[in-house]
Amino acid sequence: DQQVKQNSPSLSVQEGRISILNCDYTNSMFDYFLWYKKYPAEGPTFLISISSIKDKNEDGRFTVFLNKSAKHLSLHIVPSQPGDSAVYFCAASAKSNYQLIWGAGTKLIIKP
Amino acid sequence: NAGVTQTPKFRVLKTGQSMTLLCAQDMNHEYMYWYRQDPGMGLRLIHYSVGEGTTAKGEVPDGYNVSRLKKQNFLLGLESAAPSQTSVYFCASRGTGNTGELFFGEGSRLTVL
Lengths: 112, 113
Hints:
The structure holds 2 protein chains of 2 kinds.
Chain A: E1 4-5, E2 10-14, E3 19-25, E4 32-38, E5 45-51, E6 56-59, E7 62-67, E8 72-77, E9 86-93, E10 101-102, E11 106-111
Parallel strand pairs in A: 2-11
Antiparallel strand pairs in A: 1-3, 3-8, 4-5, 4-9, 6-7, 7-8, 9-10, 9-11
Chain B: E1 4-7, E2 10-13, E3 19-25, E4 31-37, E5 43-49, E6 56-57, E7 64-67, E8 73-78, E9 87-94, E10 103-104, E11 108-112
Parallel strand pairs in B: 2-11
Antiparallel strand pairs in B: 1-3, 3-8, 4-5, 4-9, 5-6, 7-8, 9-10, 9-11
């Protein structure tokens, strides 16, 4: 039973446009959500996070939105740049144990 | 600025052989983790440690053992490798006081024939 789902294995976006990556979760105990970015042959790197007490967190070109009632979060990248081409993982944790549960990832391709 | 270093980066084993993956971090982090990543799946936690001398099982611990004799090192052992353990293995660490930001190594690609 996948508790964190990223239903789009891949996404292709034109350079300069907005990229929107989606993530759904099923466990209502999750209260902290993170996005990681991964380039080939490298480990994932932390991108941005959001606590369940917020519905939006912004860091430069990256914004994460959280809809608790829908158990859905999304990552917006504006404007998209070629260096954003990577696999993006959504992860969630509950304060009780801080163990991260990961989605399967979405491969983002930015077209020039 | 090393961060998290994993060795080896690549390894090919025959079924039944044993090996150890080494993870070293230089950030004085308390928590360390071993994950595996398989195609079409997210990272799955194998074992983790909340401090020197402690270890605990994650989601998929069977077939693996770990040790944390020194704070900076976390070893992952396969006593009798199986083809199902063909995967990319990632080590990660984090300090106390943050709720999820992990620092990852570059990964170790293991193939079991």
